Amino acid sequence: MTPAIRLGISTCPNDTFAFHGLIERAVDWRGLRFEVELADIEQLNEGLLAGRYDVCKTSFHAALLAADDVIVLPSGSALGFGVGPLLLARTAGTVPRDSAQLTLCPGRHTTATLLFSLFHPRSTRVEQTVFSEIMPRLQAGSADFGVCIHEGRFTWEGQGLACVEDLGARWERETACPLPLGGIVARRSLPAATLAAAQGVIRDSLAHGLAHRERTLPTMRRHAQEHDDAVLWKHVELYVNDWTLDLGPVGRRALDELSRRAAAAGLGGPGRSGAPARLEVLAG
């Protein structure tokens, strides 16, 4: 029997949209056998670093930390303009500048946490928590700031919170690149034919979702934190784009920029032969 590919994907709507075809076997698995696990993005990051997955959706920050062991697949990434995490505050007019203040981040290996560390280094105390708890804790007054990701990007105003900064917009101003949030990585130890087949299945699954959008809704609803269909589609429209189908030269340049900035800040981890870690994309 063909060895199973341990596949981890997140529960956010852009991933359940993209992987609906694979999960439901609406696309050809190209001779592979997948064991699919859905989890929060930081759980996936930790699982990747612990060697739990063969193919995995992961934050590009975590991918940098595992760069010697994994390669980025061209399809399935979340990157673009206007897609970045938001730095929210409990109270309007406050900024992170005091060690007595507390900022909630959605996992120490997330790209959101990396951006906060790049743009607001050592500005406040930082606590990592599940992304879905950040806005409720801000509302309850148990933290001063929170880095908001996923569906919360569309719902924070209705919850009485204030936006301090759009971290993605700052990235865009400083780099002129789309923001690379996360992507699909695979173990370098997998055979070349397996890597190529996995990439093909993921691209086919994404194409299936784009061609049959309404069929993906039950899968998205089953796993989403926010169950308003309009919010789910906003999420898909924001995070699924041409670079999701294929990173292309623009996406590769954005990954190079993230690798360079993380290395300069000492946040990227060591690469081969002691050189700074760099994200590499599968050719072809």
Summarize the SSE layout with pairings.
Elements: E1 4-10, H1 13-23, E2 33-39, H2 41-49, E3 55-59, H3 60-65, E4 70-72, E5 78-80, E6 86-89, E7 102-105, H4 111-119, E8 125-128, H5 131-140, E9 145-148, H6 152-155, E10 162-166, H7 167-175, E11 179-187, H8 192-211, H9 217-223, H10 229-239, H11 242-245, H12 248-264
Parallel strand pairs: 1-2, 1-3, 7-8, 7-9
Antiparallel strand pairs: 3-11, 4-11, 5-11, 6-9, 6-10
Task: Give an overview of the whole structure.
This protein has 284 residues and is of the alpha/beta class. It folds into two domains: 4-80 and 180-274, D-Maltodextrin-Binding Protein, domain 2 (3-Layer(aba) Sandwich), CATH 3.40.190.10; 86-175, D-Maltodextrin-Binding Protein, domain 2. 41% of the residues lie in helices and 19% in strands. It contains twelve helices and eleven strands. Strands 1, 2, 3, 4, 5 and 11 form a six-stranded mixed sheet that branches. Strand 7, helix 4 and strand 8 (125-128) form a beta-alpha-beta unit. The chain is globular, with a radius of gyration of 18 Å. The protein starts with a strand and ends in a 20-residue tail after the last helix. The mean pLDDT is 91.
